[in-house]
Amino acid sequence: MYIAMNRFKVALGSEAEFERLWTSRDTHLKDVPGFVEFHLLRGPKKDGHVLYSSHTIWADHASFEGWTRSEAFRAAHRNAGGGTRSLYLGHPEFEGFEVIQTVK
Prior knowledge:
Alpha-Beta Plaits, alpha+beta, 4-stranded antiparallel β-sheet, 3 helices, about 100 residues
């Protein structure tokens, strides 16, 4: 299993607009081979921003890599950043993780 995360520092006062943009868009994920699930996470307030993370779970790293090269990825990111840069402080930070242990 592989977990891909992008962390966003969202300017205070922009949280509702950021959440509206993310929850109303088509992620194009549901039909991608190896996709398991997606979460949009809201974290703590810190130094003039709220921390958010997009969190996807994949069957394996190869499935995630396939997604990044797919037409579905291009469609999902076609308008990324268009008019939304003022919502963020800096660029999103990507973090990828191979799952070592899962406890259910």
